[in-house]
Amino acid sequence: MALLRRVRLWGQVTISVLKPLLGRNCFGVSDRDLRVKKNPYGSGAFVYAPNRYLWFVKSNIALKLNGAANRLTPSSPFPNDASLDFWEGTGLSESNATSRGLKLVFSR
To answer: Helical H runs in 1-108?
Structure first.
C-alpha cells in the first residue's frame, strides 16, 4: 500500500510540472487527462495524454516531444534546447527521446 501511494505521489509531482504550462486551452486537455510512464532507460518520465500529446519530464523541466505537445504547450522547450547535463542518467538523448517515448507510450 505504501508503494502504491509513493507511485501515485510521484506521478502527481511529475504532472504538476506540466500543469501551469497547460492552462486553459482550446484542445480541452487538463492535468486530469495526463498519464505518466517512468522512463525505463533511466531517470525522468514520459507524460502523455491519450490524443498523442507527449512530453519528457526530469528535474522540474518538461520538454515537448511532438507537434501535438508543441501546440498545447508552446512555451516548453524542445529536446535540442536541453543541456547535455539534462540528459545525463536518462539513457536518452535529444535525438532519440521522441522516438523512444512514442514507442513506449503509444505503440500496442
So the answer is: 2-22, 67-72, 84-87, 97-106
Give the sign of the dihedral formed by CA 31, CA 53, CA 38, CA 107.
positive
Distance CA 101, CA 24 (A): 25
pLDDT tens across the length of the chain (108 residues): 443 344 444 567 788 888 888 888 888 898 889 999 999 999 999 999 987 899 999 988 999 999 999 999 999 999 999 999 999 999 999 999 999 999 999 886
The span from the CA of 60 to the CA of 12, in Å, is: 12
User: Could you tell me the pTM of the whole model?
Assistant: 0.88
